Amino acid sequence: MMDKASKIKIFVSAMQNDCKDVLLPPEAGLNAHGQSVVPIALINGTRGYIERVAHQVNGCYDEGWYDACAVMVRRLLETLIIEAFEYHKIADKIKDGKGDFFFLSDLIRCTLSEPTWNLTRNTKNALPKLKDIGDKSAHSRRYHAVRNDLDKLLKEIRVVVQELIYLSGLK
Question: What does the pLDDT look like over 108-161, one tens digit per residue?
Fold first, then answer.
């Protein structure tokens, strides 16, 4: 015969298992409620994985997870740069000898020097700044992004994302 404590433990465990599916977000995640960083109009109708990352950028910002937001901005930039090179059928320019894409620093260097397009001055100036905050948030143990760090870059994020989406032929 089970004692009361064992029965309670079994009951609690069963409740946790029953509630897991109800209380957790869906397996694929949720769309952000806001568009604090990347306007949804910019990314709607592009590619599902781009939309998903942009929602994560916005969701992280809205929840106050600023390091995560900066890292997701970095990921969005990498993705959009690769999309632009692939769209123009020059992706080999951003791959190493093994066929792997370059790291973001080299992706940005190649993007800035690519003669196929003429980036705006704003994008040229913004790309290194956006890489910097993403790098610090991803790799620095003692750096923690705060809202103001991202707020100072919101216009640049919007300009760069929109320009890269157009260069990628996604809109």
Answer: 999 999 999 999 999 999 999 999 999 999 999 999 999 999 999 999 999 999
How buried is residue 8: exposed, middle or buried, by Cβ count under 10 Å (0-12/13-18/19+)?
exposed
Residue with tokens 């306007």: 39
Contacts of 119 (CB under 8 A, 6+ apart): 111, 112, 163
| Tokens describing residue 101 | 């894409």
pLDDT band at 71 (very low <50, low <70, confident <90, very high): very high
- Three-point CA angle 166, 48, 145, nearest 5°: 80
CB-count exposure of residue 27 (10 Å: 0-12, 13-18, 19+): exposed
- Exposed/middle/buried for 61, CB within 10 Å: 0-12, 13-18, 19+? buried
According to the model, what pLDDT value does residue 15 have?
A: 78
Neighbours of 51 (CB within 10 A): 17
Q: Which two tokens stand for residue 132?
A: 């910097």
Asked if 93 and 114 count as a contact pair (C-beta separation under 8 A), the reply is: yes
Q: State the pLDDT confidence band at 1, using cuts at 50, 70 and 90.
A: low
Q: Give the sign of the dihedral formed by CA 158, CA 159, CA 165, CA 168.
A: negative
What distance in Å separates the CA atoms of residue 136 and residue 165, rounded to the nearest whole number? 25
